[in-house]
Amino acid sequence: MAPLSALLIFFTHHRVAANLLMVLMILSGVWGLSKLNTQFFPTFELDAATVRVVWSGASAEDVESSIVTPVERELRNLNGLKNITSTAATGLAAITLEFDAGTDMGMALDEVNERMAQIRNLPTTAEKPEVTRVVRYEQIARLLVASDAKLDELRPLVYQFKEELLQRGIARIDIHGLPKEEIAIQIPALRLQELGLSLEQIAAKIGQQSRDLPAGLVGKDDVARQLRSLGQQRSAEGFMALPLQSDAQGGLLTVGDVAEIARRPREDQRYYFSAGRAVVELTLQRTATA
Length: 290
Known about the structure:
- Helices cover 36% and strands 30% of the residues.
- The chain is α+β, with helices and mostly antiparallel strands.
- A four-stranded antiparallel β-sheet has the order 2-3-1-4, with helices on one face.
């Protein structure tokens, strides 16, 4: 008797066994479905890397001539390099390197780091170049945080949600609808005349005292780490305490003595609303390998 015929005869006389087998198949399918990795696009990685150099206080023209040009000159003949795109902005240089498809990005990043280490004429006050691989992120969910309260009251709650989600394994979270803030320093024109200073001069004094500066390296070769002196002020109170100049009585005038300083949302920001209430959107993303 053929094995298939014997199996059919067995299940014909043992209906409970047939039902148990069916239930087992259904449960196995449900379990497999729960483990299925679903995504909108197929998994692929980008053969690209970026070089980022921060040079606080430098103009875009200085960044281009002192950082972008020598870096491009050193990297333009990398093995497998397909295209190089550079951006020079105030205080920042960003160079994007696109490699041929199938390039071993581990070896490519090692070569980029070696070439960057050979550049000796970068500005001494610039930060150590950061070389990273371009990572593709895929959106997996969108969360809306709504409240009848003001956005300023919603801000700490949104950042708390973001931190908790990152700790749970979410690779990246973008926040939309929560305006970025700036610290505004306003000085009346009459006060400027009394001080005998212009806005440009005061801005220069503040800039000289409020910035992060390199303080050397610790370690050698691959384990070397750059030390920085953190002088950049990030609060209204910090700017208020910055010394400006001596007064007629020999005392010290601070920025807070002559200016109104406040943290406020930047202009031209995008806001989100739902049913008349302000909302903040959190976009949750994962990497291609997650």
